[in-house]
Amino acid sequence: MATLPRSGPRRALTAAAAVLALLGLVLWFVRPGAPAPPRGRVPLATGVPTGVYARYGELLKADLARDLPGVDLRLLRSEGSIDNLRQLASGRAAFTIATADSVADYRTRREPGADRLRACARLYDDYMQLVVPRGAEVASTRDLRGLRVGVGADGSGVQLITRRLLAAAGLDFDRDIVPVRVGIDRMPDMLEHGRLDAFFWSGGLPTLAVQQLARRYPVRLVQLGDLIPALHRQGERTRYYRAAVMPADAYPGVQDGQAVKTIAVANLLVTTDREDAALTFGITRSVIRSRDAIGHEVHAAQNVDLRTAVFTDPLPLHKGARDYYVSVKQ
User: Fold this and answer.
1) Is 195 exposed, middle or buried (0-12, 13-18, 19+ CB in 10 A)?
2) What's the pLDDT score for residue 300?
């Protein structure tokens, strides 16, 4: 009687992976009411390499390879939220991440494609961070007058918030500071080497670039809580900002064991009404299911929650995302 050849460990693992992928497709098909599994390249606009958006995109790409094996998620670099929305509206990106205030501003200004934007989920909050050298005589935003300040790249949500914070502090963006329009990929190095006196950053906690800077150069976080009343007096456009506290352990050693008052704004996963409902269903599902896995690497992602994901003001939910939320409530 003939004997079967023995399979090596690598071949067995490959076969097991193929079976799991096939099982995922089968389950997709047989689940009542679920759309057909999507396929093809899907571009996702993220951010600068050392930012939270970029890292979140990398981890989501890995999870999608498991959940949607027919989808090839392609990550696109960007300067931040506003640039992301422009890439989305132009058709270069199919999905992106953007802060709620940037989305509202984009719609208010009636930018191209603004009426076609749709949300998949509310993700995690960004925290506004004002970083200065530890010995700097800066106790509030008002003390930045005359200083060289990193304000975020043009097209970033950071710069949008920075402009509003400076106005709340009674400072003119163009006249009262020296605005340096660069992103988080350059600001830490410039501060360390004396080419900046301070920089603003809006991101999840902790942000890797700020962490790494703090390990090699003594820095301090400046409170922004005193600006909240004046910020909210700017009107409807600032209703997306809430008072928040960066916990003492956000950047150990930076805050001397003290929490820091600041503002926070929600991030949204955004697409357009042109996007396929089955694809949007699947990506939304992966985002919610991957919270814990992604949260091990991007701590802010631990705050992604099914109960709050549907609150995507100022955008309505995409049909595919809405179908997903309905399916998990049944």
Assistant:
1) middle
2) 77
Is there a cis peptide before residue 35, judged by omega within 30 degrees of 0?
no
User: 9-30 and 52-67 helices cross at what angle (nearest 10)?
Assistant: 90
Give pLDDT tens digits for 230-256.
999 999 889 999 999 999 999 988 988
Alpha-carbon distances of 121 from 61, 271, 287, 315, rounded to whole Å: 17, 10, 8, 10
Asked whether the beta carbons of 165 and 225 are under 8 A apart, the reply is no
pLDDT tens digits for range 172-188: 999 999 999 999 999 99
pLDDT of residue 143: 98
Q: How many CB atoms lie within 10 A of CB 193?
A: 9
- Mean residue pLDDT of the chain comes to 89
CA geometry: angle at 46 spanning 45 and 52, to 5°?
Answer: 170
CB 246 within 8 A of CB 300: no
What distance in Å separates the CA atoms of residue 240 and residue 237, rounded to the nearest whole number? 7
Q: Which of 78, 112, 70 is nearest to 95 (CA)?
A: 78
Contact, 144 vs 177, CB < 8 A? yes
Looking at residue 26, its pLDDT comes to 46
For residue 71, the surrounding DSSP H or E stretch is strand 71-76
Cα distances (Å, whole numbers) of residue 143 to 132, 223, 290: 11, 12, 42
CA count, 13 A, side-chain hemisphere, 259:
9
pLDDT digits (tens, 9 = 90+) for 160-169: 999 999 999 9
H or E segment at 260? strand 260-272
- Candidates 221, 241, 222; CA nearest to 231 is 241
